[in-house]
Known about the structure:
By secondary structure, this protein is an alpha+beta fold. The chain is 54% helix and 15% strand. The chain contains 21 helices and twelve strands. It has helices spanning 41-52, 61-64, 73-103, 106-118, 123-168, 180-206, 210-215, 231-237, 239-250, 252-286, 306-313, 341-348, 370-380, 384-388, 485-495, 513-521, 537-578, 581-589, 594-631, 643-669, 673-678, and strands at 294-298, 318-335, 358-368, 395-400, 402-406, 412-416, 425-434, 449-464, 478-484, 501-510, 531-535, 635-636. A six-stranded mixed β-barrel has the order 2-3-9-4-8-7. A hairpin with a 5-residue loop joins strand 5 and strand 6. Helix 3 (73-103) packs parallel to helix 6 (180-206), helix 3 packs antiparallel against helix 19 (594-631) and helix 17 (537-578) packs parallel to helix 20 (643-669). The longest helix has 46 residues, at 123-168. The model has no long low-confidence stretch (mean pLDDT 78).
Amino acid sequence: PNWEPSWSPGYTALTYVDTDVLGLGERADGSVLVKNLNQKLFSHAEQLAEELGIEQVRFNSSLLRYYGVIKNDDFRKTLYSLTAIIMLVIVIGSVALIYNAFAISVSERSRQLGMMASVGATRRQKRYSVLFEGMVIGAISIPLGIAAGLGGIGVTFAFISDILKNTFDMEEPLRDVATPMSILLSCLVSIVTILISTFIPARRASRISAIDAIRQAMDIKLTRRMVRTSRLVRWLFGIEAEIGLKNLKRHKRRYMATVFSLVISIVLFLSVSFFTENLVRSARMTTLGVNYDIQVHTYDDKPLKQEFVDAIVALEEVTEYNHMTEANGIWTWVERDQLAEPLRKQVEEGMIGLEDGRMAYTVKVYALEDEVLARYARQIGADPDRLLAEGTQPTPVIVIDGLKYRDDRGKFVETKALYTNVGDRLDLHLADWVMPEGEDVKDPDQETERVETPLGEVEVAALTDQMPMGAYPLNLGQVGIVVPKRVLEGWLDAADGGSIWVYSRLYLTSSSPSKTQEDIENMEYMDRLSYSVQNVHLSRKQDEQMILILSVFTYGFITLITLISIANILNTITTSIALRKREFAMLKSIGMTPQGFGKMIRYESIFYGLKALLYGLPLSFGVMLLIYNSLGNTFDYDFTVPWGSILIAVLAVFVIVGTAMMYSSAKVRKENIIDAIKQEVI
């Protein structure tokens, strides 16, 4: 079978159970297919097992998870809460987008409905006319939106279908299936949104008199205090900035609608970006992180012959290699405040004790060849010359302080292996347990004492969470250090064998792993009774493809949300500027120059952006914390502020707002002053 590696000590044999020859005392395994899958499956199966005297019930969790049936309560909480948060963010963003398209032009709608009232239209007729407009928009947009959504998913599936087949080892391609409930729900949400969006402007307009609606007296209610600005604004930025700020205060409804649009766009983008980044991060935590294609080693863990290594490395398909020696059995003492966070909690709860305020950490030593170490150092930003310099005391080392593991509750944890800084020192030693009289330990229950043999100090030259090729993730209570091979050889000589356990292995990446494996197995140095060649390319490829699939969906999601946000901002600002033609014409008529007009528009753009960021960033952080806490049911890692996404959002707000304002004002500039003042906004 494809799930059984070629180097297994035995092979699977599949046969059948003859129920006629089973005795009463014999045991058998039974498999059950369930028609209606739901969350009650687990309790029902366990209850049935108890009634029938079945010893053990196991569930095909990997299959059930695809149906959304999950036994793990923490994982289920994560799934449902994440779904709720993301759906809420999307629904609010969608509602804001549709509502804003109507709300920004409420002045135009009020005047139009006021004129209808002046010729005898009742409140009910005015309300129905606006609702009918919304119905027409919905009748066109809802079918187009559903078709576009299904088409977009279909195109995505077509592109990633082959990747999915390889990743999940399946033959059936993903199909675009539209359930009636999902379409009905989409339609209901859109209809309700359009009703709200159209009803509120109509309701506002129907409550004022026809004359007030035509004059738009309800839109601008000013007092001296409402448009007051600080003298500091004029002193710092000039009269244009003051006029721009007063304009925003005058048209408060329009101003708030624009700011609201920007805030929603910021929250949408940052929330979805944070969600997708953490989704990919969580997926990486669940994989082993295999970063090589082929492993070659001896069965007794003795060093590989150098001529054999040289012959393998010289193969044409080999793209990168690491002939690494790994050593275990070295210890270091770690102070309480340097312990990994989970260990510190266990100490506080009294689950584990300390010796003189310290804890013994096991040290995994990864010894690399000089060329490989130099390449690895450059990858993590360390100085290879310092690491490879001979005679340096204390010995400079790279410390691997990143830790990923799964705790007793099944939660995936990412934390620091220990808290230290570049320049700090670690004291390394060997530890043996002997009888007080110096006799050999024969009984594990005998009283023994710990004897430490110092190896010397090392200095932290660099910190990283990136493992060398072939190194597996550390466990809690371990720390990894990377050194040149000659350093480890010196420690082995000093220990004179001691309790250090050493093994050497060769790890490769290849452009053609299957051919490389075949070439290695056909070499004259190859002795199948002494050497093992393991090809883990398929496992590595599946992990990488899983991340790729998540990236396709998540970054596609970000792109869609970004386009919606940009469309929202452009629509809001261009409509707002178009409704201010008369205002701009009046400013020009009293002497504002084109340069002054452009300056005023630029300052308005800045004010819009600053106000939107003032509200949008805190709200975005709130949503990020909700997502982080939701993921905390299954994954445990530090909250990381997405500074890159925040910088993109800040720059994008000012660029998009400024571009939209300048583009719209450029069109307004071409208007004749007299015609613009005389023009009715209908």
